[in-house]
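Protein modeling request. Please complete all fields; requests missing the sequence field cannot be processed.
Requester role: graduate student
Desired output: 3D structure, token encoding
Chains: 1
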Amino acid sequence: MEVKVLTENTVYKRAFLGEHGLSLLIETENQNYLFDMGQSDVFLRNGRKLQVDWETLDGVVLSHGHYDHCGGMNYWKNVQEVSENRKREIPIYIAREALEDKYSENPSTGEMLFSGIPREAKRWMQESANIIYTEKGCTQISDNVYLLSDVPYITEFEPLPVRFWKEKMPGADLEADTMEDEQLLVIREEKGLCVFAGCAHAGIINCLNYVQASFPGERIHSLVAGMHLKGCSSRRLASTIQALRETEADIIVPLHCTGLTAIAAICQAMPDVCILAETGKKIQL
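Delivered output (285 residues):
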């Protein structure tokens, strides 16, 4: 399996672009999936440099309904509309709750910032896209390809996320967003399970525990994930690293919202397992 990093917060290659966001092209022996789209057309522009053929995609997986993972949909709709193979509209796998209007609270000012899927993109998705709404729990979308959502909060050091809000109905009062729409992509390979997470708002260890409970007896081979550890406490970071060690994964790729401090700590603690990722990089799992 090869993973091409189309969008990430960091970039070190000439002529590539980075932004706060995530987009991965996942190519297995028989199937190709786009995992998230970043917040703009950066994933398309970098994809052209990597000679990505969008017509070969078997599906698009949107991990959750935040702008830095779904904002690129504003530009993806143009790709679909000019596709040479209009009869095969590429399916978009998303949880229904991801289409709710989402907000994040500025910790300094208390200001509510819209952080959901751009409304123009959401309207196109609802009216024209080949959307497949995934059910809560485990959804198999193809041979050995699964989506897990509604991650249970069971780990003591990973509490419910704060500062995230949602508007379930237009004009309704905002309510806490526990990110039940966030879904993990799990692909079964000969070496084990390959796990992908966009932000892991429920906590990356909660996510991995959920994977292991959903696939009893199977080992996790690799983890490619935004882990939402930026600014976390030193206690939580240390507990996370210890739990990551205990998974005995062969490869761990921390990126995006993991944060530079946490990424450095993970790589220092597990130098033989951790791989740094930046826009334009190709990773073999």
